[in-house]
Every structure is written in C-alpha cells, then in structure tokens.
Amino acid sequence: MSQISNLYRLQYIDSQLDAAKLRLQNIEKILSDNLPILSAQNTVTQAGETHKLLSKKLRDAETRSNDTRIKIELTEKSLYSGKIQNPKELQELQNEIAALKRLMSSLEDKQLEIMMEVEESETKLMWAGEELHEVQKKQIEQNAGLNAEKTKLLSDIERLEAERNAVLPTISTIDIGLYEQLRNSRNGVAIVKISSKACSACGTTLTAALVQAIQSTGQLVRCPTCGRILYSG
Questions:
Q1: Distance from first CA to last CA of the chain, Å, rounded?
Q2: Residue 18: closest CA among 188, 202, 225
Q3: Which of 12, 133, 223, 232 matches a 20 to 30 Å C-alpha distance to 213?
Q4: How far apart are CA 152 and CA 156, in angstroms?
Q5: Which residues pair with 222 in a beta bridge?
Q6: In this structure, are residues 160 and 13 in contact, taking their beta carbons and an 8 Å threshold?
Q7: Full-model pTM
Q8: Other Cβ atoms within 10 Å of 157 Cβ, number
C-alpha cells in the first residue's frame, strides 16, 4: 500500500476516532445531567411545602371554628339557664350570641375555602410525585441505553487506536508531520478524495495536469485552495 493510501487510511481511522470521542463526551455530559430530576424533585418539594402550610392553615381554622362553636354553646347555656334575670344582661347575651353566630358563619365559609385549597394542593402534590416518578423512569431507561452505547464506544476507540498504531509506522515522519499540521488547521480533515475532478472538501475544480499528477506520482499533492492533501482513491 502506498504512502498516500496509508495516509488516507489514517485519516479514515482518525475521523472515526474523532466522532467516537465526541459522542462519548456528549454521553458523559448527558449522564451527568441531573437537572430534569432535580427540577421535578424541586416541584415535589414546593408542592409538599404548600400542602403542609395549607393543612396547618386548615387545622387553625378548624380550631377557631370549634372554639367559637363552644363559646356559642356556653353563652346559649347561660342565656337559657334562668340564672340571669336582668333584661339588660339577657339582651347583651343575645347580642353576643348573634355576633358569635355571624363570626361562626364567616369562619365556616373561610374553612370551606381553605379545604378546597388543601384538596387542590393534594392533587398538585400527587401530580408532581407522578411526574417525578416518570422523569426518574425515563432517565433510568435513557441512561441504560447510553451506558450500553458508552461501552461499545470505548471498545471501538480501543480497536481504532490499535489500528492507528498499526498504520503509523508505514508512513514517513515528514508526511505524518504535514498530516497532523493540516488536521489541526483544517477541522480534523487533512486528506480528501477527489470527486468529479474537484476537491471534495472545498469544491475547487482541479486542472487535468494536477489530477494526472495525483494519480501517477507518489508525491503528496495538495489542493491549491484549501491546502489539504488530495487522494485519487
């Protein structure tokens, strides 16, 4: 196999290595991204705190309603016990009972309103919990697939690096130096095939003499525009 063929083979291996390593980096990034779960957990936490606060608010409202109810019962008991004969005192008790009943009605309305809020918060907490479970399930399934792909990529990289090491000794140090220089300056692509008498990288149309030189000589010929090494295939 000629130097140019070996260089093209090296380019093919390096392109596969680049793609595999880039994908591996992306997989590692995805695997380390816990943002969806953290976001779902935060929603559950907030929903739980809201439910807790509303539940306490409901208990306080129930306590106040019960206290008011007891106060009404005690006041009515005093009113109807027959122990109080003074008309003024009796009127005051009646007025107090009326005021307490108005307060009781207001408290019951408020309690009902809070109960509805508690029920709504319970529903939201349930939904948040189900969403968290679904996110966790999806991430477990996703990570299982990604870890399997990661294992394959690591195996592919090991194989490709072995192939690369086998090709390197067949290429001269000078040609390797030029190849690496072009790889660094041309987005990882140092050598390309001719396609329809043009450079397949930049599209520059090649002269017949240049195409003939590429096909007939053992020298490395470069694209006059992008500088990449040209390979006839």
A1: 12
A2: 188
A3: 12
A4: 6
A5: 229
A6: yes
A7: 0.74
A8: 15
pLDDT in tens, the chain (233 residues): 588 999 999 999 999 999 999 999 999 999 999 999 999 999 999 999 999 999 999 999 999 999 999 999 999 999 888 888 888 998 999 999 999 999 999 999 999 999 999 999 999 999 999 999 999 999 999 999 999 999 999 999 999 999 999 999 999 999 999 999 999 999 999 999 999 999 999 999 999 999 998 888 778 999 999 999 999 88
Q: Per DSSP, what are the bridge partners of residue 230?
A: 192
CA angle 59, 46, 40 (to 5 degrees): 140
Q: For residue 228, which phi and psi values (nearest 5 degrees)? A: -70, 155
User: CA distances (Å), 73 to each of 59, 80, 84, in order?
Assistant: 21, 11, 16
DSSP string, 151-202: HHHHHHHHHHHHHHHHHGGGS-HHHHHHHHHHHHHTTT--EEEEETTEETTT
Residues facing 229 on adjacent strands: 191, 222
In residues, how long is the chain? 233
Residue with tokens 């260089």: 7
Write down all domains in the chain, each with its CATH number in brackets.
34-169 (1.10.287.1700), 175-231 (no CATH)
Pair of tokens at residue 58: 């409901």
Tokens found for residue 66: 């019960």
**Cα 62 to Cα 114: distance, rounded to the nearest angstrom:** 10
